[in-house]
Amino acid sequence: MPVVMDADRIARTLTRIAHEIVERNKGVEDVALVGIRTRGVHLARRLARTLKEITGDDVPTGALDITLYRDDLMRHDVGPQPLVRRTEIPFSIEKRRILLVDDVLYTGRTIRAALDALIDFGRPRAIQLIVLVDRGHRELPIKADYVGKNLPTSPGESVQVRLQETDALDEVVLEPEQEGAA
Amino acid sequence: MKRLLKGGRVIDPANGLDGEFDVLIDGDRIARVGKGLPIDGAEVVEIPAGFLVTPGLIDIHVHLREPGQEHKETVATGTASAVAGGFTAVACMPNTSPVNDNANVTSFILGKAAEANLARVYPIGAVSRGQKGELLADIAELHKAGCVAITDDGHPTATALLLRRALEYAGMLGIPVIEHCEDTSLKGDGVAHEGFHAAALGLRGIPGACEAMGVERGILMAELTNSHFHVAHMSARASIRGVRKAKEAGISVSCEVAPHHFTLTDEALGTPIPYDTNTKMNPPLREAADRDAMIRGIQDGTVDVIATDHAPHHLDEKNVEFDRAPFGIVGLETCVPLTFDRLVHTGIIGLRRMVELLSLNPSRILHVPGGTLSVGAAADISILAPDLAVRIDARALRSKSKNTPFDGWEMRGGVAATIVGGRPVYVNPAAGVAL
Amino acid sequence: MSTEAPEQGMGLPPATSALRHKDLLGIDQLSAGEIALVLETAVAMKEIGSRSIKKVPALRGKTVVNLFFEPSTRTRTSFEIAEKRLSADTLSIAIASSSVVKGETLIDTARNLEAMNPDMIVLRHASSGACHLLSRFCRSAIINAGDGMHEHPTQALLDAFTIVERRKRLAGLKVAIIGDLLHSRVLRSNILLLTKMGADVWVCGPPTLIPTDVTRFGVRATSRVDEAVRDADVVMLLRIQLERMEGAFFPSLREYFEVFGMTEARLALARPDVLIMHPGPMNRGVEIASEVADGPRSVILDQVANGVAVRMAVLYLLAGGVEHEEAA
Ligand SMILES: [Zn+2]
Ligand SMILES: [Zn+2]
């Protein structure tokens, strides 16, 4: 199964995105990172470290769990509920530029839920979207502002992002269509 | 007309019979019992090998609910249930509405029984007028009208003094006083046996001592009056200890145990159906040590009778919160299977003892006919199938009420047919006896 | 998908991935892992309560009926807030016990409610087992908000949550529960939960108020309050129901306070960081002295606050239903 990004590639990509952030926002004043659980949070923290190295400033970083905002929640008659984790945004998002971070951009539904959730915390000046991989097949009018890699896929394939923090290695893998997979 | 029951195993403890005998019925009487009886124009009924021919079973503790609570049971449906359960006679409790505390009610019940023409019915009169626990009922009049005992069942006799007087009076008539033994202050608003399971389910408890208090009181009054005291539906180990000691002391006391009290424990309150109101009866299902004490008492002879305390209640009355549901379960049609399955096939008692507990002793305690297959006796006969596979289906019960905790139980041993006064009144199609 | 444990540092056994029950009838039915799942989910729910907009769309379109046959402002309000924070449509019905006596049975009420097709029914009832009864006749998920003397599972869950929040574990803690043990549904749910989670549970009260065979639950029972309190990590007081107690189960309230009331002097025997808990409503000067109730070690108000988060977790987790209903 093909590895589309290795550890080195991921690291260089995040550094590039960090520079783009600084350039586009003319520094990191008013900027805050919010990662979408689970892997978006780790990516957000890595970006915060890189931004600190570049600018010397601490960028507030939070974690957002979008489970309770999912549009497929309660759509099935029966079935176990997805786990809910803690949302941690220990700063005001009011009037800030919020950089929303996720690992893979696919249908756009997760981002839709995340936008709804964020708005419940206040009224940010702007929200920008950062994704490590954009695999296409959007179902909602959503576009990323910063993309690590555009990866053309077929709907049956699966993109796996693995990170040190949760998976003990850094890589992005494109897994082929599985027999009988839904 | 004559009928010849051929090939069954006859068990008649009163006459010391246990073996393959033919039984000749002439009209409503037993004409002959013997080996290889000539057919001599009689209709031959082949009894399959292994089936038992016993004196008709008698249940001395049944609530027929008529008059007054016909939505639960009537004399007709109750006696239909009785014969389907192998009983040729039942004694019915006086806590009807109105209470059977006078000859009119007794006659009414006997009239209904004659109409139904199934099992024999022996009414039991009240100890006190209206079962109010104040004034004695017209006991001699009740006796003359056909009552075979007196009791305030449903409740204990209100005071020791009233119980004393009832025993004295009943003693004069030669009938027993049957007592629902219970100390009402200890019962309080209890709904289940006071033990671990009631504690876990948050149900108010009734300790075993509550019943044993009533037993001890009755024994003392029996000793004082030298009259016959009968303990109804015994459930607690302390009760049986009291009865055993009293019997050793020569006091005139007898007692009965219901099948649910030798089968179930309070564990049934929570499983398989938590708070199943069909596990709510009074006295309550008790803990294993009590249940085992009942079994030991049945085995060692302390227990005289198995009686069902058949207590029908309508489904709507039972489909309520546990503490609001009435006490009691139906028992007539599950008694024989439970006795076979739990007592006989487990080796706790033999068949002879089973017949004593269900027929001979009941007839002796109430001084009613039956209990034997003696020549000239009424032809009340139960034909039992000890190895019949039985599955209890509550909806199929003949009783008007279906409140049994044994729904769906599979057991070994059942009823094949019931004959009252020479007349087949019940034939179980699953058993294969052609009557 | 993820291998990350949702909420670390709670010192609980591994949480299960789902609550596979139609109803929450009691702690009785929950495994240690399921209890951990509820508590961990409640952590996330508690954060919602700290936002300026305290509402998430999780139960949008779901109907929850709060059916209360016993007055209970505290529990009912807590459920109502929890339901509203999850965006459920809620309907609260308080039925005076007097009207129940007059005729309509619980089953009748339930059948009428079912016609409105609620997704969940939160039931408070004076009879033990009322929730089991309702569950047999209703398709809706039933949440037990206190049934007679039986269980009050969400109270035990919020108590556990409050302890874990402060102590980061339940296993190994000495928890002393003191008061009217006999009539308490809070006691039953708490001892089931705490023993499942490995706590060392002591129950204490006058012998007249200790349930039969209570030690079979795996707890230690005593009427010596000092023994219960000594080295306790948590002291939980249970309410004495004034109306029916005095003269029947103990001679007088004054004497009860004398023998069992929780005072600062008595608490000196407990661990210095002992947590004082009470499910409310309190009788000050009967089971608990005011100085203890309002003292620095009291977490009684935390219990109230945590009630909403724990009930949100239960509502959310049960809303998914079960694929295959377990045999009754
Ligand atoms: Zn009785
Ligand atoms: Zn009875």
Task: Name its key features.
heterotrimer, A: 182 residues, alpha/beta, five-stranded parallel beta sheet, C: alpha/beta, four-stranded parallel beta sheet, 38% helix, globular, disordered N terminus, binds zinc ion
SSE order and pairing:
The complex is a heterotrimer of chains A (182), B (435) and C (328).
Chain A: E1 3-5, H1 7-25, E2 31-36, H2 39-55, E3 61-64, E4 97-105, H3 109-119, E5 126-134, E6 146-150, E7 158-162, H4 164-167, E8 171-175
Parallel strand pairs in A: 2-3, 2-4, 4-5, 5-6
Antiparallel strand pairs in A: 1-8, 7-8
Helix pairs in contact in A: 1-2
Chain B: E1 2-6, E2 9-12, E3 17-20, E4 22-26, E5 29-34, E6 43-46, E7 52-55, E8 57-62, H1 75-84, E9 87-92, H2 103-116, E10 120-123, E11 125-126, H3 139-145, E12 150-151, H4 160-173, E13 177-179, H5 184-187, E14 192-193, H6 196-201, E15 205-206, H7 208-225, E16 229-231, H8 237-248, E17 253-257, H9 259-263, H10 288-300, E18 305-306, H11 315-318, H12 335-344, H13 351-366, E19 381-391, E20 410-420, E21 423-427
Parallel strand pairs in B: 1-6, 2-7, 8-9, 9-10, 11-12, 12-13, 13-16, 14-15, 16-17, 17-18
Antiparallel strand pairs in B: 1-4, 2-3, 4-5, 7-19, 19-20, 20-21
Helix pairs in contact in B: 1-2, 2-3, 4-7, 7-8, 8-10
Chain C: H1 32-48, E1 63-68, H2 73-85, E2 89-94, H3 97-101, H4 106-114, E3 120-125, H5 130-137, E4 141-147, H6 153-167, E5 174-178, H7 185-196, E6 200-204, E7 220-222, H8 225-229, E8 234-237, H9 242-245, H10 253-260, H11 264-267, E9 275-277, H12 290-293, H13 300-318
Parallel strand pairs in C: 1-2, 1-3, 3-4, 5-6, 5-8, 6-7, 8-9
One zinc ion is lined by residues 61, 63, 93, 153, 309, 311 of chain B.
